[in-house]
Amino acid sequence: MISLYDDFLPWFYSVLPEISHDCALHGLQIEGRPYLKRIGFAVSVTQEVCERALSYEIDTLIVHHGLFWNKQMLRGPIFGALKKHFEFFICNQISLLGAHLPLDIHPLWGNNVLLGQKIGLTDPIVYEKGLLWRQKISHSSKKDFFEHCTRMLSVKNHNLLDMQDAKEIHDLWIGWCTGAGGSFLESLPYCDVFLTGEVPERSWELAKMQNTLLMTLGHDDSEIYGIVGLKEECARHYGKNIELFLL
Ligand SMILES: [Fe+2]
Ligand SMILES: [Fe+2]
After folding, report:
1. Centre of ligand 1 from the C-alpha of residue 129, in Å
2. How far is the CA of 164 from the centre of ligand 1 (A)?
3. What is the pTM of this model?
4. What is the pLDDT of residues 181-190, one digit of tens each?
5. Which domains does the chain have, with CATH numbers?
6. Residues lying with their CB under 5 A of ligand 1, a single-atom ion
7. How far is the CA of 167 from the centre of ligand 1 (A)?
């Protein structure tokens, strides 16, 4: 068994150092049992994830989207879904750990680097302290790249039909940001194609005006990669001393 405070948390903070501008509380959010044997990994805390956590008898849950935002302790009142989530972790003595921005920007197994690799973008330029990624590909068209993405990913929404130059072959700048990256459409150097998890409604108008092919993948679906990467890193470090589950 692994000690939460003496072993696991020091390892966790060493592989995912805290980032000062992260709005989420990094690392331990709710204390459960003092020793770890079975860890669950998920993008968000949901009812389904909590049910699976019980069926797998995990003692620790690590998520990308935890329960503490704005880095403050909750001001309350605590009611509804949040109350149920707190009850779940405290009553079942399950620890909750969050890894937000450090998991988005990790250069080897973060959300963005792995999403890029999934669609063959392995030589990116990184912007916005690791949140925004961009790469040029040669001799392609928006339509071809769109079809490539739909083979590799589950594309939820897109504006390909708005693109009058969709079939034109030329160099393409591809930009991407997992999660909610819509605001980067305004600050990013021009992109022919931009992929993200979800966008506000105005982003579709903006993308159309600047002739950017915009693809959304779903917020949580776009952020599964980092949590899988962290699980694999955990397996490399702890080997058979701990059991790991993707919930
Ligand atoms: Fe994220
Ligand atoms: Fe997110």
Report:
1. 13
2. 32
3. 0.95
4. 988 888 778 8
5. 2-101+223-246 (3.40.1390.30), 111-216 (3.40.1390.30)
6. 104, 179, 223
7. 32
